[in-house]
Amino acid sequence: MASTAPTVTLAHGAAMPRLGLGTWPMDDAEAERVVAEAIGLGYRLVDTAENYRNERGVGLGLKASGAAREDLFVTTKFNREWHGVALAAEACERSLDRLGLDYLDLLLIHWPNPKHGQYVEAWQGLARLLESGRVKAIGTSNFKPSHLDRIISATGVVPDVNQIQLSPLTTRDESREYDEEHGIVTQSWSPIGGQGGAVREHPVVVGLAEKYGKTPVQVVLRWHLDLGLAVVPKSSSVERLKQNLDVFDFSLEAEDVAALSALDRGEGEAADSDEFGH
User: How far is Cα 219 from Cα 215, in angstroms, rounded to an integer?
Assistant: First the structure.
């Protein structure tokens, strides 16, 4: 049996693996191959989105893996055109159809799009989907504390997960503290800091990799886990997929976690979800 990531119990009861596979920017063909390979290596969480345009490929990969549906945790997200109570339900059905599934483990509002002004209605729609059992957990992506305040005060329903851009270069302290106070699991996207090598090649990261006998990416992923975060790194390489999952046999000393957190360049490093979204 391949090794799998430990789970965290979400607010509404679902058990979510703390590390999973991100699939942006894979196309359908690549997603089908990589998802099947990743599940074979021990991955159990697969993260996709309507906007990635690879849900069909992800679904084919899930099927090709041969894994039992109940052993998998599948996350997707919907765009602002589905921000509405009934519209969120339609978005869910469309994603399920593309994925070839009959329920979702986690459905997220991809961006708040506050200028569009309908994310509260979208959240009301998600709350209904949770009640119906069509989804096992509901959450948000790229929501700031101000956005979360609005949906929680409007509905009384707290997200299971808030998935945000987060790495040692953008540690998102305010969001992490808010999420923790409200029992929301923070899940990091772009956890290694994006396509550039600014994190992987940073002397602090390289030095810690040497200290722990791990790769720079493994050290950064362990930093996320040691902060209590969940994480969805993307890779298409079998070797890197293996490495990304091989981070549960060590932990960083407190001063090393702090040294990585000190690389933070501030909130400006993250996409501003008051201005950007789809």
Answer: 6
Span 63-80, pLDDT tens digits = 999 999 999 999 999 999
Does the pTM exceed 0.70? yes
- How many CA atoms are closer than 13 Å to the CA of 15, on its beta-carbon side? 7
Q: Does residue 202 register a pLDDT over 60?
A: yes
Output the six-digit token pair for 89. Answer: 């339900």
pLDDT at 1 (0 to 100): 41
Q: Which 8-state DSSP code applies to residue 186? A: E
Per the CB < 8 A criterion, the answer to whether 108 and 163 are in contact is yes
| Helix and strand totals (H; E) in the chain | 10, 10
Beta bridge partners of 107: 76, 138
- The residues, ordered by sequence, that sit 6+ positions from 68 with a Cβ below 8 Å of its Cβ are none
Averaged pLDDT of the chain: 96
Paired with 106 in beta bridges are 75
SS (H, E, C) 137-171: CEEEECCCHHHHHHHHHHHCCCCCEEEEECECCEC
**Nearest alpha-carbon partner for 53 in 113, 98, 114:** 98
Asked if residue 71 lies in contact with residue 80, where contact means CB atoms within 8 angstroms, the answer is no
Per-residue pLDDT for 3 more than 80? no
Q: How many residues does the chain have?
A: 278
Please name each of the domains of the chain with its CATH number: 11-196 (3.20.20.100)
172 three-class SS: coil
Q: Which two tokens stand for residue 127?
A: 């709350």
Q: Please tell me the distance from the alpha carbon of residue 107 to that of residue 62, in angstroms, as a whole number.
A: 17
Strands (E), the chain: 7-9, 15-17, 21-22, 45-47, 73-78, 106-109, 138-141, 161-165, 185-189, 230-231
Catalytic residue IDs: 52
